[in-house]
Design brief:
The structure is a homodimer.
Chain A lengths: L1 H5 L3 E3 L8 H4 L1 H11 L7 E4 L1 H8 L6 H6 L7 E7 L10 E4 L3 H11 L1 H19 L15 H15 L7 H16 L2 H9 L8 E7 L10 E8 L6 E9 L5 H4 L16 H4 L1 H18 L3 E8 L2 E9 L4 H13 L5 H6 L6 H5 L2 E2 L9 E2 L1 E4 L2 E7 L2 H9 L4 E5 L7 H6 L2 E4 L7 H9 L3 E3 L5 E3 L4 E3 L5 E3 L3 E5 L4 E4 L4 E2 L5 H13 L3 E5 L3 H9 L5 E5 L7 H12 L3 H9 L2 H15 L4 E4 L13 H11 L3 H11 L11 H6 L2 H20 L6 E4 L5 H22 L6 E6 L2 H5 L1 H5 L4 E4 L1 H9 L3 H13 L16 H15 L4 E4 L7 H9 L4 E4 L4 H17 L1
Parallel strand pairs in A: 13-14, 14-15, 15-16, 23-24, 23-30, 24-25, 25-26, 26-27, 27-28, 28-29, 29-30
Antiparallel strand pairs in A: 1-2, 2-5, 3-4, 3-5, 6-7, 6-8, 8-9, 10-22, 11-21, 12-16, 13-20, 17-18, 18-19, 20-21
Helix pairs in contact in A: 4-9, 6-7, 7-8, 14-20, 20-36, 21-24, 22-23, 24-28, 25-26, 28-29, 35-36
C-alpha cells in the first residue's frame, strides 16, 4: 500500500488530471477528452495499470479514500481500460453499492421495479463475474420485483453458503479484484496476444458514479453514432431503450426505439428533442475536436443527459477510407493524417468481394488464406471442367491437389481455387493473387478422389463435383452452399486517398502483369508500368503448346528455330498488346523461365497422343520425357541456363519484343522495352545472352529501318547473383530482386513444399513469420542490401527494384525505400495497397 | 631486323650466357645446365621467343652471323624449346646443310650409305615439314644409296617444280620459318591450351651443330635413363642403335641393342664400355646437380660421345612419388621440396586400379569421370542383381539411369557404377567416391531399356545384362570386354611422403565416413577423425526400412516413438562400432537428413506390398505416398525441419549416440560425440533441437550414471545459415560448411540436375569450372568467409571445418587454411590427397 501510494494508484478524471494512455488505458483518456469538451459525465476515477496489477497480486489500494471522491453512498460502475480497446478486457460491472438497506431506502423514492432492477442486475453480475457461479442459477426472464430479488439472494446464499455482500467497500474490493485477475488469466492473455498485444499489456479500470437510466420521468440508456459502418456515409445510427442500463438498448432490440424520426415507430428525436439536439452537437464536437467518428454511450436520468463513454465507431475498411477522406476534406485531418488512418493491407478488403461479416458461417475447413476475396460456385476438379463451366457462364470453384502451369487457364476461368497442398507462395497462391482470384491452399486435411470426383472433409462429409460451396480466400475457409457476399468497393474516396498517396510517396509502384487483363487492371490502378511480365504462360495455349513440343523434340538448332518461328507472330502480338495498353509506360519482360519438361505430358495417354501428333514412336516420347525429368526443377535447367543451352527461344522472344516495339512505335508511344534475364548466377551468362540479343536487335533494325533501343536487366534470384551484383551490373541497366526465388534459395526452402510444415514452424516460433509472406530482412534482406550496394557501386545509375511477391507488402516497401530502390512491382490487385504503403513509409520516415 | 637485334635474337648456349626459361624455353635452359656440367655437347644457339615470333611474322634474324658461330660448313639441327616441355612444339629437323655438293664431298670420306642416309633424311623431313608435301611421296623403306637420293630429289622437283634448295642459309631460313609458323597455327594453339598453356605461350628454337651418329667406327645414337617409369625403381633403361640419328633407337626396336649386359643380345656396356661408364656418370650428375631423373639423348660419333639433349624422365604418379622420396633420402631434395614435386591430385592414380596406359583402348562411350579407378565386370541393371552377383563373388558393373539412396548397397556390391544422368555431384558420383568405387555418370548418349535389360550405345551397339565390360572412372569411359589393369600402389614411399606432409601441414584432415568400411579406410589413411558421418543410409537396410515405414504411417507421436524404439539398438551398435574403430578420435555425426518420401515405394507393386505388410488399404498407402511427394525435395521437408516437426527421429538418434558413447567409454577410449544438425537456416532451429537433445542426454545420464558430454554443431548448407552464423554459433561448438548443398543454393543449381548442361557451360566458359568440382571462391567462398568471420566473432573458440565434396581439393584446402578453418573432411580415399594438398598449401604460403 505504502509503495503503491507513491505511484498515485487512482486519479480522478478531470480536464487537467494526468491521464496517460500507456498508464491508464485508452478509455480513461477518452473520458478525459470528453470531459474537456464539457460533456456531462458522472464522476470517474482511473486506476492505473500498475494499481490494477497490484490488485491482482493482492495489494488493494485505499478504497476509502477512493470512495470519498464520490458523493455520499453512490452507486458505482467499474469498466476496463486497456491501452488499445481492441485488446478486450473483462465486462463492465454496474450498480455496485446496491444492498438490502439501499434497496429498501430506494423503493419509496424510485419504486419497487426500479430498485429491484438495479439490485437484481448487480446480484446477477456479481454472481457470474465475481463469484463465478453458474449462469443458470437465476431466472433470466424474472421481472424486477421484491419476490425475484429475494429469490436471487436466497439462491446466492444456497450456492455459496454466504450472505450476499452488503458493504459497498467489500463489493468494490471484490469487483476490482475479479476484474484485475480476469485480465491476467492465460486465456485472456492468449486472446489479446492474438490481437498483437504485447505480453505485458496492462489493464486500467475506471470507477464511475452511476447515471442510473432507470427511475421516474424519462430515464433510459442508449448508443449513438453519426456514420453508418459499411460505406462510411454520414447517418445517425443507434438505439435508445427507456428504463435500461449499459448497452441494453442494443441487446433488447424489441423494446428499443430509433433515434431519428422514423415512420416505423417513436423516436428519441420526438421523445426528448433537447437531449437529441445535444447528442448531435456532442457527435459533431467529437468529430471536430477528437478528430474521430465516435460511438457515444449515454444515459437519460429523469430527463437529464449523461455521457458515460465513447468509443471509435467500429467500421469496415471501406468506411474507414470514406471517413478519413471526408475528415481531411473538412479540414479536420491533413491528407497525410488521413493516409496514416488507413492500414494499407485493409485495402485488400475493399478490392475484393467479401463474405458479409454480419452473416455467421461455420466453415467446412480451414486452410491457408492465399488470395483474398470470396466466391460462390460449383465444385470442379479439373481445369478443363472449369473452362467448360466458364463457357456456360457458370460459376465454379476449382479444387486440386496442387496446380501447375497447365492450370492457369482453368484458374482464370474459375471463381475460386482450393488446393490440398502448398503455402503462401505455392504456384496456386502466386497465380491466384496475380489473377485476383480468391484462393485457399494447404488444406491438407481433405482427401481428394479425382477418379470418383469427390472431396472428403475431416469430419467425414463428402462433397461431389457440382456441389455449391463458397470459398473465402480472405479467411482461408470453405463454406457449404452460398452465403451473402459484399461487393468490392473502389469508390471515389479510395481514388482520392490514393491520389494523396501518390503525392507523398517517393518510391515507384509497378505491377507484375502477364496478360492483357492484368495489364488493364494495372493501368486502371495507376501502376507506373509493368515491373515483371512473365512470358511462360504464353506458351501454354493449345496451339502454342504443340509448337513448343515440336521444338523440344527437334534434333538440331535449325529445327528448333524453325518450330519457334511459328510462335514469333503470336509473341509479337502478345507484347504489342501489352505495349499498347501501357501507353508508353515501361514494360519489363522476363524471358522464358520454366524447365522444358513442364511442356510435356506426364501420363501415358498424353504421351501416346503426343507420339501420334509428332509421328514419333511412343518409346521415343517416353524416353525424352524421362530424360527431361528433374529432381529439383527449381534448381535445374531453366531460366538463363535454357537461354544459353537452347538459345533459339530467347532469340525468338527478343525478335518478337523488338518487332512489337517497332509496330507500336509507328502509331503511338515510343517503346523502350526492358528485357530481364531469369536465374542468373554469373556475369558471363549475361554477356553471352546480351551478345545474342544485340545481334537480334541489329537484325530487326536492318529489317525495319527503325532504331532499336532496349534496356537489359537481371532478376536477382540466386544468392550468387546478389553477391556478384557488381560484376553483373556492369552489363545491365537494371537489377530487379525476385524475392520469391531468392527466399527459396537463401533458406534452402521450396515455396511449393514449405506449406507442409510452415504452419508448425511459425506456431512454434521457429520462424517468426513465413518468409514467403513477410520479407526476411535479416537474411534475404541482407542479400538485397549487398546486391543493391554492390550494383550501385559498380554502376551509379543502375535502376533497382523488387518484383517478388513481397512487392506489395508494407514492410518490404519500407525496406526497399530505405535501400534506395527505384520501384517495387506487385500483383495488379495489390497496386493500391502498395501505393498507400509507399506513402506510409515516406510519411513515417519523415516523422523521425 | 634492326629492332630485333637489340633484343639479342640468338645466344650461344655457354655456361655463362644469359639463357632464361621464360625467353628461350626449357630445353635451352636444360642444355645450358648440361654444358655447365661439362658434358660434351655440340655448339648450340638459342633463338628467343621474340625472335621466333618475329620469324613467323617475316622478320628473319641475321643468319650469316648466326652461322658464323659454327665451324666452317657444319650440318645443323633445329629443335623446339617451349617454356614447358609438355606444351609440345614442331618436330626436330636434322641434317640441315646437306646438299648435292656436300653429298658428293662426303661420300669419299664417310661412304655412300652414310652420306645418302644423312641427305635422304633431310630431304624427307624438309618435304614433309617445310614444303608440306604428302607423306607418300618417297619410298619410306628405301635403302640409303645414290639411286634413292636421286629419286627423292626428282620426286621433290616433280612435285614442287623447284630444285631442292642447296644453299644452307636458304635451308635454315625455310626450317626456322616453318617451325615458327607451325607453333602459331590454331590447332597447335588449341592443343597446348588444352594442356593449360597461356594463350601467348612462346616458342624458342635451338640450332645445334650435328653430332652425326653415322660414320666409320662405332657411330650411333641412343637414349638412356636410370629409373624405370612405372614404380620409380633405379634401373638403367634405354636403347642404342648403331648408324642412327635422333630417336631412331626407340623407333627401330629391331635393330637397337640393350644398354646394360643382357643375355638376350649385345649391349652398349660391352660395345663401348668407356662411353657406357660416362653415361652412368652423367646420369648421376644430372640427378645430383640438376636434382632430377633425366632421360639423356646421346650420340656416338666414331667412338666419341656427344650429349644432344636431356629431358625429365616421363613417369607414372607412383614413380614420381618414389623418385621424390628417394632424392630426399639421398639429401638431394629437402622433404619440403619432395612434397612439392608431387601433385596432390596425382595420388588418385596411385590409390585406385588403373587401365594400363600401355594398352590402347577404344571406349564405347565418354561420360563424366565421377570416381577414379577402373574395374571389369558383368553388366547388371539393378542393385538387387548387383548384390546377388556379389554374393557369388562375381564382379559386376551396375548400370542405372540414376541412383538413389536405395541403391547404396548395390553400389557397394558392384565393382563400378555407370549412370545415364547426373554430374560430378550427383548421388551416384558422391556415393561412389565415398565408397571408392569407380563411377562414370552423365552418359546421356546411352539408351537404357530396363525391361529388356539392354543398353544401346550411340553407334547402335547393344549390350545385354551379363556382358563383360571395363569401366574407367578416371577417364570417364566404358570399354568393351576386359582390359589389363594396374593394381593400386600404396607403397612405403607414399607412406613416407605423407608422414612428411603431416609434419608440415597446419590444417586438420578428417574423413567423411558413414560405414564401418569407410571408417576403417579413414583410420588406415590416418584421418584425424570422422568429419561427417551421414546416418540416413543406416535406415535403408531391409529390416530397418520396414520400421521407418511403420513410423511414417504412425498417426501419433507416441506411435512414431514406439516404431523408432526398434531402431534404437541397431543405431546404438552402428555408432558404437564407429567409435570403436576410430579409437578415441572425434566422430561427427550428422543427424537424419533426407525427406521421408525416400523411404516409401513409388511403384504400384511396392505400394501393394507395403499395404499388405502394414495391414492398411492400398488407397491409404497411395495417399500417404502422394502427400509426401515434393516438387523440390532438396528444398523441402528434410534435415532439421524433420527434426522439429517429427522430433522422435532425432530423439532416438541422440539416445543411440549417447548410449553407444557410454558403452564404448566403459571399455576403451572416452568418447565425446559431435552431433551435427543439417539444413539449418535460423538459430531457433538449433535452440529447439538442442533443448531436446539436452533432455535426452540428461535421461541417459540418469539411466547409466555416466556423465554425458557432447558437442553440438551445425552443417552450414543454406546461404542464410552462413549469413546468420553469429546467431547460430552462439548455440554451437562447431560449424562445418557443407559446400555441396551450399553451392546448390548459392547458384540455385541442383547437383543432380546440373549434369545436363554443366558440360556445355564449362566448355563455353560460362562457368570457368563446375562449381561442384572446384569450390567457387567468389560466390560460395564469400559465404564461407562471411560465415567463418561472423561465427568466430560471436564465439572465438568456434571450431570451423569444411565437409563438402570440395574437402579433398587442393584449392579448397588452401582456401580453408587461409580462412583459419580447423580441418577439412573428405571421402576416405581422398584423405591422402588432402594431407598432401594441405602440406602444399602450408609450404606455398610460407614461400611468400
Amino acid at each position: 500500500m505504502q509503495k503503491l501510494a507513491t505511484f498515485k494508484p487512482f486519479t480522478e478524471i478531470t480536464p487537467t488530471a494526468s491521464i496517460i494512455v500507456a498508464q491508464h488505458g485508452g478509455r480513461a483518456k477518452c473520458l478525459q477528452r470528453l470531459r474537456r469538451l464539457n460533456m456531462p459525465m458522472p464522476k470517474s476515477i482511473a486506476l492505473s495499470f500498475e494499481a490494477v496489477h497490484g490488485i491482482a497480486s493482492g495489494r488493494m489500494p485505499d478504497l476509502d479514500r477512493l470512495m470519498r471522491v464520490f458523493d455520499e453512498a453512490p452507486l458505482l460502475s467499474v469498466r476496463p481500460s486497456s491501452e488499445d480497446p481492441d485488446w478486450g478486457g473483462p465486462g463492465a460491472i454496474l450498480n455496485i453499492g446496491m444492498s438490502d438497506t439501499r434497496y429498501e431506502e430506494m423503493i419509496p423514492r424510485k419504486g419497487e421495479a426500479v430498485a429491484s432492477r438495479l439490485y437484481l442486475r448487480f446480484i446477477q453480475t456479481w454472481a457470474a463475474q465475481v463469484a463465478h457461479l453458474d449462469d443458470d442459477l437465476f431466472d433470466a426472464d424474472a421481472s424486477p420485483t421484491r419476490v425475484t430479488v429475494e429469490a436471487a439472494l436466497r439462491a446466492y446464499e444456497m450456492e455459496t453458503d454466504e450472505q450476499f455482500p452488503q458493504d459497498p467497500a467489500v463489493q468494490l474490493t471484490g469487483v476490482l479484484r475479479s476484474m484485475a485477475r480476469a485480465w491476467e488469466t492465460t486465456s485472456a492473455r492468449l486472446l489479446r496476444q492474438a490481437k498483437n498485444a504485447p505480453a505485458d499489456a496492462g489493464l486500467g479500470l475506471i470507477v464511475q458514479g452511476m447515471a442510473l437510466g432507470v427511475g421516474p420521468d424519462e430515464s433510459g440508456s442508449g448508443v449513438i453514432q453519426f456514420i453508418e459502418p459499411v460505406a462510411g456515409r454520414p447517418q445517425i445510427t443507434g438505439r435508445y431503450l427507456s428504463q435500461s442500463q449499459g448497452r441494453d438498448a442494443l441487446a433488447d432490440r424489441a423494446g428499443a426505439i430509433y433515434l431519428t424520426r422514423d415512420p416505423r415507430g417513436p423516436s428519441l428525436e420526438e421523445l426528448c428533442p433537447e437531449v437529441f439536439d445535444k447528442l448531435i452537437e456532442y457527435g459533431e464536437e467529437c468529430r471536430r475536436r477528437l478528430r474521430e467518428e465516435m460511438q457515444i454511450e449515454f444515459v437519460i436520468n429523469s430527463g437529464n443527459l449523461s455521457i458515460l463513454d465513447a468509443v471509435r465507431v467500429p467500421r469496415s475498411a471501406r468506411a474507414n477510407v470514406a471517413i478519413a477522406v471526408s475528415m481531411a476534406r473538412d479540414g479536420i485531418l491533413t491528407p497525410a493524417e488521413a493516409l496514416l488512418r488507413v492500414e494499407p493491407r485493409a485495402l485488400n478488403e475493399l478490392l475484393h468481394r467479401q463474405v458479409d461479416p454480419m452473416h455467421t458461417v461455420t466453415p467446412l475447413l480451414q486452410g491457408v488464406a492465399a488470395s483474398p476475396g470470396a466466391a460462390t460456385g460449383r465444385i470442379v476438379f479439373t481445369s478443363d471442367r472449369a473452362e467448360a463451366m466458364a463457357a456456360q457462364d457458370e460459376a465454379c470453384i476449382l479444387v486440386k491437389r496442387e496446380t501447375n502451369p497447365e492450370d492457369v487457364r482453368g484458374m482464370h476461368a474459375a471463381q475460386g481455387v482450393l488446393t490440398e497442398k502448398g503455402g503462401m507462395s505455392s504456384h496456386a497462391a502466386v497465380i491466384a493473387r496475380g489473377l485476383g482470384v480468391p484462393c485457399v491452399v494447404g488444406a491438407n486435411m481433405i482427401r481428394l478422389n479425382r477418379r470418383e470426383k469427390t472431396l472428403r472433409l475431416p469430419g467425414g462429409k463428402l462433397l461431389r463435383e457440382g456441389d455449391v460451396v463458397t470459398l473465402d480466400g480472405s479467411a482461408g475457409t470453405l463454406i457449404d452452399g452460398p452465403v451473402p457476399l459484399l461487393e468490392p468497393a473502389t469508390d471515389a474516396a479510395l481514388g482520392t486517398l490514393l491520389e494523396w498517396a501518390d503525392e507523398v510517396r517517393d518510391i515507384g509502384v509497378r505491377a507484375n502483369a502477364d496478360t492483357v487483363e492484368d495489364a488493364r487492371i494495372a493501368r486502371d490502378f495507376n501502376a507506373e508500368g509493368i515491373g515483371l511480365c512473365r512470358t511462360e504462360h504464353m506458351f501454354f495455349e493449345e496451339n502454342r503448346l504443340t509448337v513448343m513440343r515440336e521444338m523440344i523434340f527437334a534434333d538440331t538448332a535449325e529445327a528448333r528455330a524453325d518450330a519457334l518461328k511459328q510462335l514469333l507472330p503470336m509473341q509479337r502480338s502478345d507484347f504489342g498488346r501489352l505495349f499498347d495498353i501501357m501507353e508508353g509506360r515501361p514494360v519489363c519482360i522476363r524471358l522464358f523461365d520454366p524447365p522444358l519438361h513442364e511442356f510435356l505430358p506426364h501420363d501415358r495417354a498424353g504421351m501416346l497422343e503426343l507420339a501420334g501428333s509428332l509421328g514419333r514412336p511412343l518409346a521415343e516420347v517416353q524416353h525424352r520425357v524421362e530424360a527431361l525429368q528433374e529432381y529439383n526443377p527449381m534448381l535445374g535447367l531453366r531460366g538463363v541456363r535454357l537461354g544459353i543451352t537452347v538459345p533459339e527461344i530467347y532469340d525468338m522472344q527478343a525478335r518478337a519484343i523488338f518487332e512489337a516495339a517497332v509496330d507500336v512505335g509507328k502509331t503511338g508511344n515510343r517503346v523502350v522495352p526492358e528485357i530481364m534475364l531469369p536465374l542468373v548466377s554469373a556475369k558471363r551468362e549475361v554477356e553471352v545472352v546480351r551478345a545474342r540479343i544485340d545481334t537480334i536487335a541489329a537484325a530487326v533494325r536492318a529489317d525495319t529501318g527503325v532504331e532499336i533501343d532496349y534496356k537489359l536487366g537481371v532478376i536477382v534470384e540466386t544468392p550468387r547473383a546478389a553477391l556478384k551484383a557488381d560484376e553483373i551490373a556492369a552489363h545491365c541497366a537494371f537489377l530487379s530482386f525476385g524475392t520469391n526465388d531468392l527466399t527459396q534459395m537463401t533458406y534452402g526452402l521450396s515455396r511449393d513444399d514449405a506449406g507442409r510444415f510452415m504452419g508448425s514452424y511459425t506456431r512454434q516460433g521457429v520462424f517468426p513469420e513465413d518468409p514467403f509472406h513477410v520479407l526476411d530482412r535479416d537474411g534475404v534482406g541482407e542479400l538485397l542490401s549487398i546486391g543493391a550496394n554492390r550494383g550501385r557501386a559498380a554502376k551509379p545509375d543502375l535502376v533497382l527494384s523488387l518484383c517478388g511477391e513481397h512487392g506489395g507488402n508494407s514492410e518490404s516497401i519500407a525496406f526497399c525505400r530505405e535501400a534506395g530502390f527505384d520501384y517495387v512491382s506487385c500483383s495488379p490487385y495489390r497496386v493500391p495497397v502498395a501505393r498507400l504503403a509507399a506513402a506510409h513509409a515516406a510519411l513515417k520516415s519523415a516523422e523521425f
